[in-house]
Predict the structure.
Amino acid sequence: MTRPHDFGFDDTAQILKDTARRLLQDHCAPEALHRLAAASSEPARATECVWDEALWRKMIDLGWTAVAVPERYGGFGMGLVAIAGLAEELGRAAVPSPLVATLCATYVAAACDSEAARRLLRRIAAGLSVSLATTDRRGSWAPEDTDVAVDEAGALRGTAWFVQDARKVGALIVKAKSPRGVGLYLVEVDAAGLTIVPDAILDLTRDQAHVELRGVADVQVLAEPGDGARALVAAEPAILTIVAADMVGAAEWQLQTTAEYARTRVQFERPIGFFQAVKHPLVDMMVQIDGARSLVYDAACAFDHEPEAAEVCARMAKAAASDAASYCSGRSVQLHGGIGFTWECFIHLWFKRQKHNEVLYGDGAHQRARLADRLIGRIGETA
Amino acid sequence: MTTPSPSESSEQAAFRAHCKAWLAGNLPPRPRFRLPLGPLEIATVEQLEYLCNWQRAAHAAGLVGCDYPREHGGGGLRDCQWIANHELKAAGAPFFPNIVGLGMAAPTIFHHGTEAQKRRLLPPLFSAEEIWCQGFSEPGAGSDLANVQAYAERDGERWIVNGHKVWTTLAHFATWMILLCRTDRARKYEGMTYFVAPIRDGIGRGVAIRPLVKMTGELGFNEVFFEDYSIADDLRLDEVGRGWSVAMTTLLHERGAGPLVTPSSGGGVGDDGETTLGAAGLVELARRSYRNGRPASDDPRLRDAIVQLLIRQRAFAQNERRAAVPALVDHPLRLPLQHKLTLSELLQDTARLACEIEGMAASLHQTDPNAPAGGRWPHAYMNSYGFTIAAGSNEVQRNILGERVLGLAKSK
C-alpha cells in the first residue's frame, strides 16, 4: 500500500481535532481542571477517582467512542491519524476521562476475530467505556505475561495490574492464560467475583487500580486461548501511538504555558525569556516536541497504510514522545521557578500525567531496546 | 518508505517519471579519485570538474532549478524541485558543487534582482559554469553579522570596496561572490547594501584570496581581502541601505527555511558512496566493529545510542514531511527554522557515535590503510563542527527560534 505524503490527515480528521480543541477549552480549561482534579492536596486524594461525568456524556454524544470503531459495527471507521489528532487534544487539556483507555481497548477488540468482539465494538460505538486488564504485577508488556488464569470451570482467577481508569469504565478486557495459551475475555465491572482495588497514584487526571478476579464466571471470549497474544501484538502499535499523541499534546501545553511565563515574568528588569539560559531550553522543548509529533503522525499513517512498518514507527514515536514528555515536564517546573514548585500552579497536573504516560506501555529505553533487537539483532547474534 | 501522494499533480507525476528514467541511465561513473564528503570540502580541481560536469548534465536534463522560470535558466515547473531531490537521493547521485549559488545566491537574486540580473546570472549558476561564494562574515562580524565593516563607497556609477571577509567557502574556485557591505557607518541595520561581485575578475585588481586551513588539515575556505576594489553599480541587488533585508532572504534559504527549494540539499552521495546522513550506516558499522575486544553491536549502551539516532534521523525526515501539511503545523516558520539546527546536530552526534563504535580504531587517520570506513568518521566528526557553527551558529539559531516562534524577548 502507498503511504500518503500528507499522512492521510484529511478534512474529517481536522474537524474532529478542532471540535475536540473547542469542547475541551470550554469545559476543561486549566482553571476548571485544577478546581476539579486538584481540589485536595491530602494524601487520601491519591486513591480517588475524580472526573467530570457530564463532560464524558458530551464526548459520547459527539461520537468519540465510535471514531475508531469500523463502520460495519456502527462506528465512524476513522484512521489512526485522525485518532492521534484527537488524542493530542486530550493530552493538551489533560482531561480526566476513560477515552484513551477505551480507544486502546477498541484496537484490541478490532484485532480479535470473534462474535463477542464484534458485539463489543458495537457497544463501544454506542458509548460503552472499556479498559485493558492485560498487565501483570511486574509491569510486563509482553503479550504472554499475565497473573490471571482460567480455572477448570472456565472462570477467571488472579489479579490484573496497572489497569487504567478502571473506576470510570463499564467493562474490562482481561488477559488470562490457560494450557492452550493466552486468551482475551470481556468482563463487566459489576461481575460477581470481581473487585476493583484502587491504587494510590500521583497523576490527578486519571485513576488506576488492580483488579482481583476470584472465580469470575460471567465472561465473553473475545480471543480464544492461543489467539490473545496475536491480537495484543496487532493492536500494540495503535496503543503506543495514541499514548504518544496524548504526551505530545500535553508537552505542547507545557511549552506554550512556560513560554508565556518567560514572556511575562520580569527579573533583573527584563522578561526572563531574554536570558539564553531560559530561552534555549524552551527551544529545545520545541525541537523535541516537533520530532515526536512528526513521528506520531508517521506511526499513525504506517498503521493505516503500511502495517508491516507499524511496530517500528510506533515504538519510535513512543520513545521520542516519552523522552520529550520527560524533558518538557522537568523544564516546565524549573523555568517557572518557585511558583512552579507549588500545588497552586497548574503545571503539576501535566507534569504528573506525563510521568505516568512515560512509563505506560514502556518508556523510551524499553522501546529502544525492543527496536535494537529488531533493527540491530539480539545481543549475541549480531556480529 | 514515503511514496508520492495520490494528490500529486499530473505535472509532478510526469516530472517524477522523467527524473527516474533519466537518472537510471545517466549517473556518472565513480571517479578514480576520492570525492569530498560534501560541497564545502571540495579541495581539488579534478573533484570540482567532475562535480561541475555532473551538475551541468543534471541541469540540461531539467533536474536543477526546476521551479525557476525558463527565461532564467530554470525548468518553469511548479513545486517540483523537491521531487528531483527525492529522486536524486534515491538514485544515490553525487551532490551538486555550486551549493552557495543554488542554495543562497539564486533565491536572493530571484527575489531582489532586476530582470537583467536574473537573465545574466542565473543560467550559468544552474549549469555550474559559474561557481558562487558568500562574502558575509568578517573577523568582527560572526554571530553578530550586522556588524559588517567592509565598506563600499559610492564613486559615480561604481563602488569602491575596502574590507576583509572570512570563512569564504569555494572562493578559490568562484567566479562570483554575494557581498554584504556597509555603505553608511552611522546606521547599523539600515546602513548595509548587497552586491554581486565578479571576484575572479578582481584578483590582482583589488581582490586577494588567502586559503584557511581547517582543523582537519584540509583547505576549502578562505579569507578574502578587498583593497580599493571597484564594482559597477548595476551589480547592486535591491536598494542602497536594504542590504540587511536582502541578506535575510539569503540566510533563510541557507538554513533551509526559504520558500524556494534548493536542488539536492544535503542528500547527495560523497566519499564511499554513503549518504552524508549516515545514521543507518551505524548499524552496519556496529556489526563490523570490535570495541574493547567485543562486538560493538552487543554493547547495550551503544545499542541504545544507535537507536536514539535512528529515531532522530527518522524524526528529521518526518518533520520535512509534516512541514508540507498546513493542518499539522502551528507556526509557518517553526519547522523550517529548526532545519539547520537539528540536521547539523544529528550529523555531529552520528559522527561522534560512529567514532565511539569504532573504539581504538577511531584513532586512525584517513590515510591509514587500517582505518575503518576509510577513516571517514573521525574526519566527519571534526568537519561536523563546520555545520554547527556556520550559517549562524546553533546558539544563534536557538535565539532566532525563541524570538520568532516563541515570542521571547530579543537577546540583543
Observations:
- The CA atoms of residues 33 and 95 of chain A lie 8 Å apart.
- Strands of chain A lie at 130-133, 148-150, 156-164, 171-178, 181-188, 194-198, 208-216, 220-223, 266-267, 270-271.
- The first helix of chain A runs from residue 11 to 27.
